[in-house]
Structure formats: structure tokens, C-alpha cells
Amino acid sequence: MSAQPHAYAVSDPETALTYAIQHMRGDRVQIVEGVIEQTGPTWDHENIADLVREQLGPVLRRLRLRAGSGNLDLPGSGNWYVPDLAVVPADLAKGAGALLPDQTLLVAEITSEPNADTDRTVKRRRYAEYRAPLYLLVDRQERSCTLYAEPGPLGYTAQDGPHPFGASLRLPEPFALDLDTSEF
What we know:
Layout: H1 13-22, E1 28-32, E2 35-39, H2 43-63, E3 65-68, E4 72-74, E5 79-81, E6 85-89, H3 90-93, E7 106-110, H4 116-129, E8 134-139, E9 144-149, E10 158-164, E11 168-171, E12 177-180
Parallel strand pairs: 7-8
Antiparallel strand pairs: 1-2, 3-6, 4-5, 6-7, 8-9, 9-10, 11-12
């Protein structure tokens, strides 16, 4: 039996890790700071993602955008994220493998007990570094939502929140939408 050829150089660990997680079966898998993590969202977690997606629906259709939890590559960082929700132009979503954070219009992470600090700090910093224009943090443990904007190499320079669940949160253009968090 012959071994299948690699699509990566053995001396390149970042590419090897990325290749490995792309070929794993089962739950969603991501790499956070070089550590492979399997994610298994709870129903409560998925409920919030769905509530956000429903509210974005009319804007998504009007602007030809797609929302989902597709892969985001952060080349050179040892990271490969599977956000809870990312909004991208429809033409980029069609036939795409992984996208880059700067190709998104919005990235949302919804905290779970085991990953809350990662979403609050590591991912926020990395999404800003890789120029995701908007980062929505839905913090289930703190029962709050925060929107980060104006990304740069040192982080986001604009922050709206934290707002307690129940308050509305304004998503700027191109969304121009008040996000209702009362059912979160």
C-alpha cells in the first residue's frame, strides 16, 4: 500500500496543522494559537447565532451577503478559526474554502464556558490584526454584547458596549440595524 502524497511541506507546521484540521471528520475544528480545538455548540449557543442571523436576514438578501460559520484562515499566525457567525459577500461564499477575516463584513463569536476568555481576548485581538471590520462579542456568561470596530495591528480602536442582554445594539453600515438582544 502506498502513502498518499502530502499537499504541504513537512517543515511547515502551520500548513501541516491546517491540512490536518481540514481533513478531520466530525465536529467543527479550529486552531487557536497553535492548539487544535473541537467545538460543539450547545442549543443555547446556536439559538443566539440563529437569532442574530434572522435579524440580519433582510439586509443579507438586499445586499447579496451570506451568513454562516465558514472557516477563516489567519496566515502566518498558526490560527484557523471557525467563527460562530461571519457575514461575507455572496460571491466570496460560493465555492470558497477558507476566507480571510478582512473579507468579512462582520464576525460574531458567542461565548461558551470553556472558550469565553479566548473569544474575549485572543480572537478579538486576532480579528483586529487581520482586519475584520466588525467583531460582535455575545458574552453569555456576562450576559452582554459588545461591538468592536476600526481594526488595527494593536486591536480595535472603537468599542460599543458592553450592553446588557435586552438592550439594542446598533450595527453600523452596511447593516444599519438595531440588533435586538432581548431573546438572548
